[in-house]
Amino acid sequence: MDPVAGLLAGFGVILTWQNIQFIFIGSLIGTLIGVLPGIGPLAALSLLLPATVALPPVGAVAMLCAIFYGSMYGGSITSVLVNIPGEAASVVTCLDGYAMAKQGRAGAALGMAALGSFIAGTLGIVVLSVAAPALGAFAIRLGPPEYTALMALGLACTILMIQGSALKGAIMIGAGAALAAIGMDIITGEFRFNYGSIQLSAGIELLAVVIGLFGVSEILLNVENAARGMAVKARLSGLWPSRVDWAASWAPILRGSGLGFAVGLLPGGGPVTASFLSYAAERRIGKDPHTFGKGRIEGVAGPEAANNAAVSSGMIPLLALGIPGNAVTALLMGALIINGVQPGPTMMTDRADVFWGVVASLYIGNVFLLILNLPMVGLWVQLLRVPYSVLFPSIVLLAMVGTYSANRNLFDLWVMLGFGVLGWFLRKLGYELAPLVLAFVLAPLLEQSLRQSMVMSPDGAMIFLERPLAALMLGAAVLMLLLVAFKGLTVRKLGGTT
Amino acid sequence: MTIDITRRHLIAGVAGAAALPLAARAQSRLPVPKPAGFPREPIEMTVVYPAGGGMDITARVVQRFVEKHSGERFLVNNRTGGAGLVGHTWLATQAPTDGHAVGVIANLVISDAARSQGRWTINDLDHIAHLNAEPLNLCVNAEGQYRSGGLRGLLDAARARPGTIRVANVVGGYYEYLIEQLEQASGSRFLKVPFQGGGPGITALLGNNVDLAFGFFGEISGHLAANRIVPVAVTGRQPSPFLQGVPTVNSVIGRDDANWGVSRWIAVPRAVPADRKAWLAAAFRAAVADPELVEEFRKLGAMPDPALDTPEKLNAAVQQMAEAERAYLIASGRAQR
Fold first, then answer.
1. In chain B, at which end, N or C, are there fewer CB atoms within 10 A of the end residue's CB?
2. For residue A400, pLDDT beyond 70
3. Cβ of residue B172 closer than 8 Å to a chain A Cβ
4. Domains in chain B, start-ordered, CATH in brackets?
């Protein structure tokens, strides 16, 4: 079926009163869980999975998808307003978003985040509708060597994100990688660094790390500042992005869309990695890199576009091939199977109604989300009027509920609180936390694919040079490191300041 | 469907409860009397693997039928981590022993007990109701080099060029044992590329990044239908009813112990009172005996085992599986007698 006819048929399937309701409900729940720190799309989807058994498959999956991308819209809200990421994918949004809020530009940041999300999400779906099978077939050919190269490139980009001391940044990257090594060795199945503990042998939960490092530590800092009578509260002024904001943001949004789409397409990639890479890219490309982190709208627009584009392209391996690339799409696949639809390469033809219905639902959901989010900006900003003595205990409570709901494991709560205290110390000492989180996400993927590559290669590391795409990406990573090494030199030549 | 029903289902789902219309419940015809005061709340069906996976889907299907036959409410809860170790440990050592928590587990619990470093054994659980079982399917890429020679051709190729055939492995379990048996049969070595689970291995097979991969039916059926992969053999004592004309590994390599696969059942902590155990066993047994559930299992590629119809037989079978695995570990030099 050609894309246009397919999409038309898809809209025919999805445009029933009932399905529209499902998409709307999904968008609403998604925004909400995006706003609530701790409760991520994964936890929300697994809670809602039983409810979808009784629904028709298209409506059920459309609703679950809406929750997933809805959470990407909502995730930026607490990042901007109170410097606490609603999702792991919104961590970098804190950096410039919160700085903007402190300058009274919370509305501009939120408005641009919603617009960027919408543009990227829609662009992603257009590409998905036109090229899903071809892109899927391409993604599947990528093996461990290509992933190794991609992850190396990602880690090299992390270095670009470091704003202060390079040494401190490197320590944080090392710490992230070391923390991620706790648990089961993915190659031998042996336990590492678990010190005889069953809990540690499961590894450390990403969600608990993110919520602890960013959420709990932020609250600790604020409590401290309030106790000393020097709390800085974000101010309110303009609610909407200005013409100047828009001029600064359109290019980052497009770049973020492209980058996010590419990252999301790959198994193991996803919204978290996409948002980090987009931020690193914007800092590299943008004028005056040193003003990033101090309220640059590009630092909000790019990453927020990237995480939504990654969600759209993440659907491609699932819908076109029946291969889930991350935990959330694995759950969506489970939802399809429970509803009697076998995902796989034949789904596009055997169950064209489901395939195109779900694709069409993505368009509708993104429109709903824009309508939900733009006018709501004013409402969300009112959140700042809530006294911290009410707001922060509520956030801690929600964070605890959310963290517990991920694995139903009390140990995760201790991890979250421990990382909260650790994050508080690190921030006081001037260490950046974002590189730690990105290393925590990327290092295990790098380790796994590197070791897989070395096992599957009869002639050692040559496998990275024998496969062109891997060689290309490794080359880019090396170039990136060289750029950093000679940063002072290049910047001076270009007439900037370090 | 009206708006109200939709809304009720959603609320039920948020509360973690089952989306089962009230009318479908209420009549219970179990052969065992319901214990006094039990259950006083929905019974948690603990799945130690993530939502959406094979075990989770099985549990959610069983949930519908056990609710239908018991007239009581059950809810599926995923306690994940450490490839199942965290959830298994919870079930064996921390789960409530009043019958309100049951485990939906598989024979993988046996190797997890060994990994628990003596904290618990499979005898800390009582295995009360068998659900289903399925073999491992050995597959090659439909456009790859080994598409037509079958398992025999692959073993010959391994013999001719040792250490070049790439096999997707999942360490510390059946995948690894099966590869060893194939290596012994070919007198050669494979390149064992490690993956985290069968699904990623099948993905690597589709991209031609490995030459041989094993998967459960749910992991391969979509790709089989699209003629992307070709099954070359199945584990177990008899051929799979889902793959006509595909031989058993045993028949190709002349053994009788290449029987690795998954067997799924319900277990409760040993300390659960006997009357509650008996009622739970009867409820799950009634669900598994329902032809509609058997049909659901078939769609997922698994079959119930009519021989395991009582807790006693299941407990004996679990012991037997544990002994067979231990015998293999000793024979392969992994464990001391």
1. C
2. yes
3. yes
4. 42-133+261-331 (3.40.190.150), 137-253 (3.40.190.10)
